[in-house]
């Protein structure tokens, strides 16, 4: 199952158009694979997030 990176709900549970819009401006807060809340660090150069289970992402 896949999860929304913004709200953490299942992707097929509802329309996530607003979440997708928000994710264009800010980093994801939830892991899309396991739904865990991620550690988020925002810097002037970008952002990075880390899931305990799945590792690092950056943008």
Topology, please?
Layout: H1 17-23, E1 39-43, E2 46-51, E3 55-58
Antiparallel strand pairs: 1-2, 2-3
Structure description:
Belongs to the BsaP family. Its cofactor is iron-sulfur cluster. It comes from Aeromicrobium ginsengisoli. It holds the Pfam family BsaP. Required for the activity of the biotin synthase BioB. Strands 1-2-3 form a 3-stranded antiparallel β-sheet, with no helix packed on it. The termini are far apart. It is flat and about 35 Å long. It is built from 1 helix and 3 strands, in the order αβββ. By secondary structure, the protein is α+β, with helices and mostly antiparallel strands. The chain has one domain. 14% of the residues are buried. The mean pLDDT is 93.
